[in-house]
Design a protein that fits this description.
Blueprint lengths: L1 E7 L10 E7 L2 H14 L3 E5 L2 E6 L2 E11 L5 E10 L2 E6 L3 E6 L9 E5 L3 E2 L11
Antiparallel strand pairs: 1-2, 1-10, 3-4, 4-7, 5-6, 7-8, 8-9
């Protein structure tokens, strides 16, 4: 786990400055290990890890799913067709720190990764609590 600073805009939109606060971010290898474990179990999960919200949804594959399709006249008609949704894993809060995996090429293939850390700042200030 590492502590980083993130920028948080606590001012009005017109205010150009953001405030920096420390936040604990887990090591990405530990996050991947958790995602791999949940994926191997193949069960839906919603909870927390390292203080961050976590969601895992297993692959969904239905041969005959029911869909309501607009009929063009203000109503709906029912269609039955196959449905597939890839397994997915997310942790974090978008805009703060967020990581996701999506098994969009199939359950047994390498997942597509996305990491949102755009608000993590380089640590440029000297922390007086750490001796040199």
């Amino acid at each position: 786990m590492s502590v980083v600073q993130i920028k948080v805009n606590i001012h009005d939109q017109e205010h150009p400055e953001a405030t920096a606060i420390p936040v604990a971010i887990p090591e990405i290898s530990a996050v991947r290990a958790l995602a791999d474990r949940l994926h191997a179990e193949g069960r839906e999960y919603s909870g927390t890890a390292w203080g961050w919200p976590v969601q895992y949804d297993p692959e969904l594959n239905e041969e005959a799913a029911e869909f309501q399709i607009p009929d063009g006249q203000g109503g709906y008609r029912i269609e039955i067709r196959p449905f597939w949704s890839p397994a997915s894993f997310t942790i974090g809060e978008s805009g703060v720190w967020f990581y996701s995996l999506l098994w969009e090429n199939g359950r047994e293939r390498t997942p597509v990764e996305f990491l949102d850390e755009r608000n993590i700042l380089p640590l440029v200030t000297r922390d007086i609590t750490h001796a040199e």
